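Example 9 (inverse folding). The structure is encoded as follows.
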């Protein structure tokens, strides 16, 4: 993100974070809108340059909201949704249902009804049982992809690996179940088989698993004499949270993925498919920063220092859940040097940690603001009301203005559904 210090104050696209935090309160998610748009355009550029027929569907789960969906439509993105709620949000934003596809390893009958009634473009079938479910609800033809499991291991946190043989997602190409589902789709009355989908995992830093998956998939298609029109390669392109992380190289990575695809299609005698991808994190993660206000600072002599901020695992779950590492920096830089501290949240769990052994300003005091970088993906979307914490507000900042995108939850909203 265009996050930089101007006169020792952290700013986004030239807008100081102190003023923004005072206006909207903390904790606050601040997004660099220019960066979200430029990530969308980067994907478009690289796929266009490859000369492919393609579409890019943003994975809503990374962060969605009505304003976000409107921005995506402006950037000619399509949309991947995994629940009725994500679909509802997209439709409320006026997004064209034909440009949305529906995922999920356990779509309910109600979700399938809702998706079909909305005129959704594609459903991604995840299980054999779903063929019959969709067929029994649909009245007209519905285009589907089959989620296959290519059996490719990836190097990422266990919770976000998905393309390995032992997975709740998709159907294996190695044990016959994927082919059985293709046959069932073709025999169904309402499902129109368009192609396949796979998603290997998330936060992947190299193209090699994607190349391995293409090899496995094309050899399977050829062995099975199966034709596809659409090949959806999923998301998973990693971002840089801390210095040691390797960001997935979008330009060079996609050049080698699309090159491999062309070679394999030629080798096996297939026409080039319509290529779909579903990036989530890499569109939005690095565009987002969380701003917190410092409260209690506690020194435990001979042990460590704890700096408590005014949010925590209710808006920052990735550290407690995956031990994810973040960079924490002061909004207002001082000359006083750094000291080591654990930056923690205010929720009632010892695991409520933003980061351990971090360098923070030695003169940090109550009321100062801290920024946690790269929190744009899977933060707001995984936020909860644990401890009856209100969900933070979200703002987008471009060169011109700061605009509210999601308001802070109110106390009243916390008990909105309670029977009084
Ligand atoms: N497509 C499918 C079918 C997916 O399951 C996912 C992510 C994506 C696309 C987008 O992947 P991305 O480009 O964002 O890596 N809560 C976890 C991430 C879970 C991702 C689940 N699926 C985290 O905070 O790391």
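The amino acid assigned to each position is listed next.
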């Amino acid at each position: 993100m265009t996050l930089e210090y101007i006169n020792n104050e952290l700013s986004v696209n030239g807008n100081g974070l102190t003023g923004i935090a005072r206006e909207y309160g903390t904790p606050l998610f601040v997004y660099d809108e220019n960066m979200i748009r430029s990530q969308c355009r980067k994907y478009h550029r690289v796929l266009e340059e490859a000369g492919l027929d393609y579409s890019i569907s943003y994975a809503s789960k990374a962060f969605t909201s009505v304003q976000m969906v409107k921005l995506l439509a402006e950037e000619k993105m399509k949309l991947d949704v995994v629940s009725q709620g994500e679909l509802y949000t997209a439709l409320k934003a006026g997004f064209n249902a034909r440009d949305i596809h529906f995922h999920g390893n356990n779509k309910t009958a109600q979700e399938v009804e809702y998706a079909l009634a909305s005129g959704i473009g594609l459903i991604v079938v995840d299980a054999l049982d779903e063929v019959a479910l969709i067929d029994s609800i649909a009245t007209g033809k519905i285009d589907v992809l089959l989620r296959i499991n290519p059996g490719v291991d990836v190097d990422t946190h266990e919770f976000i690996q998905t393309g390995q043989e032992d997975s709740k997602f998709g159907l294996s190409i190695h044990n016959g179940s994927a082919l059985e589902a293709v046959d069932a789709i073709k025999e169904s009355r309402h499902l129109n088989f368009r192609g396949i989908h796979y998603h290997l995992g998330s936060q992947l830093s190299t193209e090699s698993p994607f190349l391995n998956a293409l090899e496995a998939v094309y050899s399977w298609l050829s062995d099975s004499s199966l034709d596809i029109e659409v090949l959806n390669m999923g998301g998973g392109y990693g971002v840089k949270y801390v210095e040691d992380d390797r960001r997935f190289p979008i330009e060079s990575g996609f050049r080698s993925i699309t090159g491999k695809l062309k070679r394999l299609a030629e080798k096996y005698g297939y026409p080039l498919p319509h290529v779909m991808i579903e990036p989530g994190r890499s569109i939005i993660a690095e565009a987002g920063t969380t701003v917190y206000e410092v409260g209690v600072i506690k020194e435990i002599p001979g042990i460590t220092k704890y700096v408590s901020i005014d949010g925590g695992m209710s808006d920052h779950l990735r550290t407690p859940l995956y031990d994810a590492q973040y960079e924490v920096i002061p909004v207002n830089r001082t000359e006083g040097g750094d000291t080591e501290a654990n930056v923690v949240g205010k929720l009632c769990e010892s695991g409520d940690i933003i980061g351990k052994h971090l360098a923070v300003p030695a003169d940090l005091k109550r009321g100062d603001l801290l920024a946690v970088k790269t929190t744009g993906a899977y933060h707001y979307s995984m936020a909860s009301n644990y401890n009856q914490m209100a969900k933070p507000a979200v703002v987008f900042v471009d060169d011109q203005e700061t605009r509210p995108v999601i308001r802070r939850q109110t106390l009243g909203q916390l008990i909105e559904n309670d029977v009084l």
